[in-house]
Amino acid sequence: MTTETAVRDVNEIRNLNFLEEIIENDLASGKYESIMTRFPPEPNGYLHIGHAKSICLNFGLAKKYGGKTNLRFDDTNPVKEDTEYVDSIKEDIKWLGFEWAGEYYASDYFEQLYEWAEELIKKGLAYVDDQSQEEIRAGRGTVSTPGTESPYRNRSVEENLRLFREMRDGKYADGEKVLRAKIDMAHPNMLFRDPLMYRIIHASHHRTGDKWCIYPMYDYAHGECDSIEHITHSICTLEFDVHRPLYDWFIEKLGIFPSHQYEFARLNLTYTVMSKRKLLELVKNGYVSGWDDPRMPTICGIRRRGYTPESIRMFADKVGVAKRENIIDLQLMEWCVRQDLNERSNRYMAVLDPVKLTLTDWEPGKVEWFEAPLNPASPDGPCRRVPFTGELYIDRDDFMEEPPKKYFRLRPGGEVRLKYAYIVKCEEVVKDSEGNIIELKCTHDPASRPGGGEWRKVKGTIHWVSVPHAVKVEARIYDKLFTEAQMGQIPEGKDYKDYLNPDSLKVQDAFAEPALLEDNSGLAVQFERIGYFFKDPDSTPEKAVFNRTTTLKDSFRIE
């Protein structure tokens, strides 16, 4: 091995995250010949950017090490779950660019889970409890005081089997009985104080219908489902750290394939809430237009806003894998989409706040066409044709009557270049009766035409749109949904909805060059000098709608 190779190998090892180190050690030691991961969402809502990180991690690790990833729906609560969510989850994963090895459901294993529950009863490790939920909660004790054993804890195996089978047969009402593991009511880990394994729910399941009226709890079902699928590395977020010993306990007592759980820090993003409950409340109460509202952190919302799967995968990679909770700046996600779109998106000129610019020395009715690159990153690539006339729109912000120093846009008596076209000079400002500027009368320099005459440099260049050719579009200007960066640390007595941003959406008309409507790239486009915009599904042949994905300005820096 050369010194150069050794240094490279050491650097690669240093750059491994802790999960990669574990996997490489497991493969090198022969513990596993190949790895198997899984992504196990509960189909009770739409996935958000935090789930996207988990998807990228699980599928990414399997791909890197030649393994596979299963998609398994944790559908153990029929009251909250629906096929709508199942379908949306599958669509989101495919959009992110991943394919699962097998599609499974916890409900596929209901019969096996039930048999294992009976096995634990026969081993004296589970019992049927008649206490109410409140009594069970009170009996668990506190962190500093041991729990109290249920008066039903020492039922015989035969009685527990009979009662459990009667629970399955539908003899009892919801909440009348539960099945609990029999472990230790004084255990320092509160989860070990006889946790619930099954509860009664008389509700139709989206896959099994009315076949079952008892459903397994997460802590009981999760490890066993992993074991059935021979998941080698069960990767969860950090809040499941205290659940891992219970995960291992069930697997050990049943003597089944020893899947193992590993935890990483969940994604916390500034100006964002990640709670499914809160997101559902925003949708149900009309604070947003739906799960796919472009202000939502849902994957479908991010997609509708114009984010690309490549940018989300880049974001997940930049965030990395940590063992400690931290808060990621939303600007990092915006930086990632800019990086991706800057390389690939087409450019068009659009004016959001127009003021008319009239060329007094232009021949009436004359139209010239200028060639402009669709993407400056590919100067030899395709171009679009941009019409130029004597009546133009420019952005109101590109003119000032009394500008400050170092203002290089248009001013009275000043010159700017109209991008791709001529240099113009402002000769007169026309105002209405209230003093509002309604027109700028200008002249142009015919010799300044790009590609002809003499090149003359001016400091300012602004964008424009020909009035007779302008297409009217609706621009939806999206901003942060919340005004507070640390949404996970809001003061006591405050509600997260108190921080909803009243300016998170502004809708306005804009005027664009006609080539915009011919764009079929499927990507967000750049409105030159303004930002990136994505064509919304609300668009009609009569009126196109564009959502602002992000601005062009970027103060964020990658270390």
Explain this structure.
A motif ('HIGH' region) lies at residues 41-51. Its EC number is 6.1.1.18. It is found in: Cytoplasm. With 559 residues, the chain is of the alpha/beta class. It has helices spanning 3-14, 18-28, 49-64, 83-95, 110-122, 133-139, 157-168, 218-228, 244-254, 276-284, 299-305, 309-319, 330-344, and strands at residues 36-39, 68-73, 103-105, 126-129, 178-181, 196-200, 214-216, 233-237, 260-264, 268-269, 327-328, 347-348, 350-351, 354-359, 368-373, 383-388, 391-395, 415-418, 423-431, 437-445, 461-462, 465-466, 471-478, 505-512, 525-527, 531-535, 544-551. Helix 3 packs across helix 12. The longest helix has 16 residues, at 49-64. The chain is elongated, with a radius of gyration of 31 Å.
Topology:
Layout: H1 3-14, H2 18-28, E1 36-39, H3 49-64, E2 68-73, H4 83-95, E3 103-105, H5 110-122, E4 126-129, H6 133-139, H7 157-168, E5 178-181, E6 196-200, E7 214-216, H8 218-228, E8 233-237, H9 244-254, E9 260-264, E10 268-269, H10 276-284, H11 299-305, H12 309-319, E11 327-328, H13 330-344, E12 347-348, E13 350-351, E14 354-359, E15 368-373, E16 383-388, E17 391-395, E18 415-418, E19 423-431, E20 437-445, E21 461-462, E22 465-466, E23 471-478, E24 505-512, E25 525-527, E26 531-535, E27 544-551
Parallel strand pairs: 1-2, 2-3, 8-9, 10-11, 12-25, 14-20, 18-21, 23-27
Antiparallel strand pairs: 4-5, 5-6, 6-7, 13-24, 14-17, 15-16, 17-22, 18-19, 19-20, 23-24, 25-26, 26-27
